[in-house]
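re: that chain from earlier
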Amino acid sequence: MTFGSIKEEMRRERLREEAVKEGIPRLRGIDDEKAYLSWLGGFFDGEGCVTILRGKKTTGYPYYHTLKVEIGGNFKEILEEIEKRFGGTLSQKSDSSKFAWRLQLSAKKALHFLEIIQPYVRLKHEEVETGIEFQRHKITVWPDSYGEIERQESLLFRIQFLNKVRNTGDRVN
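^ sequence. v structure.
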């Protein structure tokens, strides 16, 4: 193990301990925090999505990027419990024949959520890791340089590719 990987593991453990101290909302029947986080990782695998959005700017560089995490579902109570712990915006959306709920987290809130669930996500681990890489780097560098814009664009395309592959059922190796 390298010093960096030990430091990263210590940071992740601190995040998990903070989550326990802050009292992650519990679902009925799940009393153990680790079991809850395992459930949450699986729930995100099935109902969640990581995206990087591009927006237009009026001055300076032509666009900017934002990390977004979205979790959808028909059970408002479950999404409310997640919202209590991680923040975000819960809204109702209507499709052609049904109503569904959507929880959206952006930027630092999305990063915090992804860092906590990262060890428990199995199917969307590449998307989660890409989102974490994007937001961590965005926080530490000057965002309006062409090199940084190019890096953000490459991560945006990676997320789009992973989501497209995941939605079509193909595998990424």
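The mean pLDDT is 81.
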